[in-house]
Amino acid sequence: MKFPGLRKIKHYFPVSQPKPQLPSLDVRPALDTYIVGLDQTIVDVVASVSDEFLAKYDIPKGLSNLVEHDKANRIYHELVVNNAISDHFAGGTIGNTIHNYSVLADDKSVLLGVMSANIALGSPAYHYVCHTSSKVDMNHLQGVAGDIGRGITMITPDGERTFVIDPSDMDQLAPDYIPTPIIAGAAAFVVSAYPLRATGQPIQQAMLKALADAKAHQVPVVMSLGTRHLVEENRAQILQTIHDYVNVLAMNEQEAEALTGFRDPLLAAEAALEITDMVLITAGAEGLYLCGYTDERTKRESSNPIKSASLADFNRFEFSRPMLRRHCQQPLKVYSHIDPYLGGPERIKNTNGAGDGALSAILHDMAANSYHKQVQPLSSKHELPYLAYSSFAQLCKYANRVSYEILVQNAPRLSKGLPEREDSLEEAYWER
C-alpha cells in the first residue's frame, strides 16, 4: 500500500516481516488491502460531431442515451467513415475509479462485471484490457459470448458532451458471480447508480447481492450517482438504495440538485447526510465539497480561513476525521470545501472522469486507514473507528489534486501516480 502523503515509514511498513519473493497478482482476502468495484464494463469512444449529426439519429443533446445495438453500429460506422473518432478508452465510472485507485495506491483492486470470453484484436474488450492497470484483478469477471458495452461520447462544437450507450452484454452479470469472501475482505465496495436502471437485467440483482454482502460484513459502501438524467428518472429507487446500503455518496452539483432538490452544494450535502455518512460533491469551477460526520468529542477546529455561505462558518471543524454516523456518540456534521487546484487548468481537454478521479483519492485514503489499522492496531489513529486516515480538509486537498490531473489530460484514467502530497501542520495532531 502506497500512502497518500509523506509519512513516517515506521508507522506503515512492517519491515520485520519477510516479503514474498513472488507477490501474487490475485487478491488474497486474508493478506491484502484492496477495494472491490462492480461496473457495467464498457469502452468509451470519443468523437467530434455536429448538431445535425445528433438530429439525424434523433439523439437528445447533452444527455446519456441508451440505444439498441444496430443503431449504435450505424452511428459508429459513420463516425469511422468521417474520421471523427479521436480516441478509444476503457470506460465505466467504477472501472475508471478502481483503475485510478490502483495507480495511486500502487496496490490491488478487484473488478466485478462481465468480459468477452473470446477477445478479438480491436474489439471493445481488447481496448478495455489494454487500458486497465495490471493491479486490477479481473479474475472474478463473468465471461460472456458477446461484447462488453460501448459508450460513444459525441462532442459538438459548443463543447457539449452527448452520450450514446450500446449495452451489448454488459448487463448480463449474474448474482452467482458475486464472490462474497472477496467483498467481505475489502476495505470498501464501490458501485454506481447505473445498474439500477437496468430493469429486468441480471446485473441489477447482482448489484443488490453485492450491496447486501458488503452491509453484512460491515464493509463501507461507496456509490457514485452517474448523471442528472439518471437520478431524475430513478430518484425514488436511488434514495432507497442509499438509505439502505450507502455510506459514502459521490456526485456533481447537478446530480446533487436532482437528488435533494437543492441547487446549493452545501444545502444539498446537508440534506444527503440525513441518509448517508459522507458526501463528495464536485462542483466544476467552484471546486469540491466533502461533508460528513465526526464525534463531538473528537472535533478539531480548522486553522484555515473560516468560510460562510448558505451555512455559517461551515468549515470550522474541517480538521476532524470522518466517522460513520452510527459510530458517533454525539454526531456532528462537518463541511469542507476547496477551490480548484491552481485555479484549475488553463485549458481543460476533457472533463470526463474528473469526479471519478476525486473519488479514487477518497477510496485510497479509506484503504490506507484500513491497512494501517491492520499493521498498527494500537496506534492513536485508531482509538475510534474512523472511516478514513486523513481529515476532511486533507481529503479535499488530495481529491482536488487527482481531479486536476484528470482535467489536464485527454483521458479519464491516470497513467501514473502523483508526486507525494505535502502534509500540513494539522496532520501532525493525528501523529501524536
UniProtKB/TrEMBL annotation:
Pathway in which the depicted protein is active: Purine metabolism; GMP biosynthesis via salvage pathway; Purine metabolism; IMP biosynthesis via salvage pathway; IMP from inosine: step 1/1
Molecular function GO labels: ATP binding; guanosine kinase activity; inosine kinase activity
Protein name, as recorded: Guanosine-inosine kinase
Keywords: ATP-binding, Kinase, Magnesium, Nucleotide-binding, Purine salvage, Transferase
Domain annotation Carbohydrate kinase PfkB: ranges: 134-294
Enzyme class: transferase
Organism of origin: Alishewanella jeotgali KCTC 22429
Family annotation (HAMAP family): Gua_Ino_kinase (MF_02246)
Similarity annotation: Belongs to the carbohydrate kinase PfkB family.
One GO BP annotation of this record: purine ribonucleoside salvage
Pfam families tied to this protein: PfkB
Catalytic reaction list: guanosine + ATP = GMP + ADP + H(+); inosine + ATP = IMP + ADP + H(+)
InterPro entries hit by this protein: Carb_kinase_PfkB-like, IngK, PfkB_dom, Ribokinase-like
Keyword Kinase: yes
Protein purpose: Catalyzes the phosphorylation of guanosine and inosine to GMP and IMP, respectively.
Cofactor dependence: Mg(2+)
Enzyme Commission number(s): 2.7.1.73
Residues involved in ATP binding: T282, A283, G284, A285, E286, G287, G355, N400
Binding site for GMP: D39, Q40, T41, I42, V43, D44, G92, T93, I94, G95, N96, R197
Domain of life: Bacteria
